[in-house]
Design a protein that fits this description.
single chain, mainly beta, two-stranded antiparallel sheet, 3 helices, 26 strands, about 5% helix
Length: about 500
Amino acid sequence: MAIFVNGLVLAQGDQPQSGRSNVPKTQDQATETTVPEGRSAVEFYRDRVRTDEDLWRLPDEGAQYPVDPAERLEPLLEVGDPFLGSGPISPGIKTPTGQMLQPWFLLFGTFRSAFQSFESDDVNTIEWANRLDLHGNLNLSGTERLLFSMRPIDRETGGYTGYNFEPDEDQGWQEDFNARLTQLYFEGDFGEIFPGLDPTDSRAFDVGFSIGRQPVLIQDGLLLNDIIDMVGITRNSLVFEGVSNLRMTGVFGWNHINRGNNDLGDNNNDHAAHLFGLFSEADTAWDNTVALDFVYVDDDRDGNGWYAGAASTQRFGGLNTTFRVTGSIPEGDETPTVGRGVLLLSQLSGTLPGSDSVAYFNTFWNIGRFTSAARSPDQGGPLANLGILYGPVGMGRYGVPLGQPIDDTIGMAIGYQTFLGGIDGQIILELGARTSTKGGRDEGVLGVGARYQRAIGKRHVLRLDSFVAGQEGDEPSYGLRMEWMIKF
């Protein structure tokens, strides 16, 4: 899943985790305590000394809530008001423009360590790989912040810190220590920075913006999934007949742009390329959310290209559905990273009756050679979110089970997810297949995969992955990995 912040879609890992946890309650607490809801909650907090003019006045002194609050998980470092904490809020600093700033800083992140084995084309890779994501979030107000991110022990191109067991020629310790900033951007809202322009909040000054090296995810990663040096401007909460909310975002990117589908193994973002994008998303009166996006890339080295995508997400009864159409058109002849094609995607899922288990059936059809406008090297191909057999693990050299080029192919993923031993454990079982739509090409692939995840405590997650896949005329490939993740 991805999150919009001021109109630009940011990766999940870029947001501070809420730190909420399930604190066990005794049976007596569950049966004897009634938690106020709705109007009752207002009644609970209402000032006992009230007047006819203000019946619902809140008291000056805080009231004790009738249940114990969940324990707050502290980040690695925090300065200022505690994140999701309780108690008085600092008075803040008033700027010359009239805005009140209440700065606070968070340092948080994720550490991942995995033993993994991947065999394909008679080449077996066995390694111990590690990845550390560090994020620093300086919040100036509720709408303005500066965020930076680092991956100090690995790279998105596959380099890592750990140990390589096979192949033998590469056996030994590996290290990729670095101090590179993978993200650095500022975002805010013009209407909040200059509140004097619209004291009654009735004019169209609530325009969000962001600038810097930032992640962008469009059409669930089919059209665009990269970290780009860019600037974006967003107008949100536009209302029309039949549309309850329309969001429009315009972007311009000038550097750190990875072209193509990551199927060449040689992506280089250090070249002159400019990206222009117009993205829109709307909630409609037909109980669906629609998106329409356009991208143009001006690239002297790899060739210019036009890209477009449309999507609709809705429910039909108990069935969740998403349908997407994306296309790419080169400006001139095709190049290795700019192809001509249309990718159709369908995603269906639903909760099985009488349970919390979920079944899904996702399909795709690539007509021609669709290519993404930009993709980060560690994000796999355009179908990375189709299923666990199509997505990368994001660390080391562990490959994608069904990650071959998708030119003129059709395929699917059918899976089942269920909880084991409560909500702290889950397992996913998946069957995936793909084949060529061109005659004379033996590219049929069939694979099965499984993933087990279990939360241990409040900060640790154990994850196990395995798969077996076979292609016509080739030996089967397989993979097995065990990962330990710590969130802080």
